Amino acid sequence: MSLSPATVLPEGVGYGVVTGMGLFFSAFMLCLTAIQSRYTPYKPSNSEEFSSASRSVKLGLIACGIVSSWTTAATLAGFQSAVAYKYGISGPWWYGAGATIQVLLFSQLAAKLKLNAPNAHTWLEIVGERWGTPAHGIFMFFGLATNIINSSLIILGGSATVTDLTGMSTIAAIFLIPLGVTIYVVFGGMRATLLCDYAHTTVLLCIVIIVVFTIYSKSPKIGSISAMHKLLSAASKLAPVQGNAGGSYLTMRSKNGLIFGVINIIGNFATVFNDQAYWQRAIASRPASCVKGYLLGGLAWFAIPFAFSTTVGLAAVALKGDPDMRILTPADVSAGLPAPAAITAVLGRGGAAAMLVLLFLAITSATSAELIAVSSILTYDVYKRYINPRATEAQILKVSHYMVCQFCQSDGNTFMGVVLGSAVVPTALCVSWSKANKWGCISGAILGFFTGIMGWLVTTASLNGGVVNVMTGGGDIEMLVGNIISLSVGGVIAVVWSYMYPADFDFTITRAINAPHYHTSNMKETKEDDDRKVPSTQAQSVGNVVGLTQDCDLDFVKLNKAFKFAAWSSITLGIILIVVIPLPLFFMQILYGVRGFQAWVVIGIIWVFTSCMAVILLPLWESREALKMVSCGVIKDIFGRGAGKYMINSEAVI
């Protein structure tokens, strides 16, 4: 009997993983939080620790968090393998490059954040302090909309795939999956989210290695790179890929793949730049590690589409006609079933179970990041700014917990760029450019929003005989036009207006946000310049505050050097990924032979192992002092009850 990924696992397994594993994982994370509270100086009962992990996270864990956040269930089992199935090797490359460049470029904003607002809790706090309430409200719409859409994609996409694997009710999965996540986020906060990221990424990369080596070495259905090449060559002869050179899956010359790449590059800017979850990691990082963390995380994540998605997507093509391989309809491909189908055909029930666990961890990890991000916005940008400006730490912590629970209960990637892309450039300018004009950036965000939607609707109607619906609006050209218009109009208006009427802003008031030595709650705007605020009272020393960036940790010379390093590195790496490597291969119309394909696969495998060292081994090495502290504390508690508890005067570096 053939195995179908839709029925290969019983429905009870789906409920068991979603509820049982969810509760087990929550209990495990709660234990880690309790250990952290007892044996380290970081207590989640502190509001700064809850929302920003005391701004103490090092390079490896930041990179690990980036990999985890960008590896959602929808992309892991959906778009990545689907584009390989449709376009061949060019699909995963354009998917990976088109989603890596935003993370690399975001490293520049991470450096500017540490330089211009080192103690902010959200990027919207910077907007509010610099441009006032109207701008704060407008950009909060874009920020919350991004988080809501991202959360919906994460949970809906993951739940749909769980249903395909087990037959579990999609609606039940949508409601049950966030429950376990909410438990450990409420009690553990940002650091629990980062620990969840580490667990997810470790399991993810281990499964990637197992799947890739099984397909290329042990599987009797494929078993070698040369056998895969032979099967793909035969498949392209039977059903040539439209728009690919020679109809082959083994070429970068893919017109549809290139169009998808452009859409992916533009659309993902809004997904990253407007998402508080990515800003949250920059906020949680140490000043010395923020830039390298994003650069390392982006490059480490690229291994997943480059190696895993290429392998499973092409395996789904190569196994067409195999009795254990499900026949995939266009709807199945759009639903992201090539990866589960291929893994099930190669590894059987064990592969399906591994895929289910992998999907569950991807959902929980990404959902926890969105929960803590939305909680921070609702707490600091709504409650503290508009409802209770004098809120105590206990009140802030209580509201943060409440907002996590509320968002959990209330809770097309390429379409996001059409709707939200107009705010990308204005947001970046607000944080990084002193001459950014308030009204130019506001106008750019609003006009880009409406013109992007208008361009998308007009293009959809003109290319589909006046028919505008879900099917016609999701075409490549329709999405491409909407994404380009939204991003470019918002950016052009903001930049041109700022050059014509430049502001004169020195970021003094944003550096004072929540600063440990200054109290600047009473601010007023001067009449001369909308972009400039001055304190209505003199700054008053309030002493050091746990979890805030202290003056001794801020070296502005080093931070400026870090920004320049981020700019050159991110731009150079981006050009290599989207121009230097793929475009010559596209125009030369190369069809890979066996040796060329072997080189492609081997480079991908090497990249995976390098990523493992960066996001699995490096965090352990950087945490060696903390692990030693915890171990010593546990041993002391064993031999002397209560002797191992961390005391305030203890010294440690974590």
Summarize the structure in words.
The protein is an all-alpha fold and 654 residues long. The protein folds into 3 domains: 321 residues, Sodium/glucose cotransporter (Up-down Bundle), CATH 1.20.1730; 110 residues, no CATH class; 31 residues, no CATH class. Helix content is 73%, strand content 1%. Strands 1-2 form a two-stranded antiparallel sheet. A hairpin with a 7-residue loop joins strand 1 and strand 2. Helix 1 crosses helix 8, helix 10 crosses helix 16 and helix 18 runs antiparallel to helix 20. It is globular and about 70 Å long. It starts with 10 loop residues before the first helix and ends in a 15-residue tail after the last helix. The N terminus and C terminus are likely disordered.
Write out key terms for the chains shown:
disordered C terminus; disordered N terminus; 654 residues; two-stranded antiparallel sheet; 3 domains; 73% helix; mainly alpha; Sodium/glucose cotransporter; globular
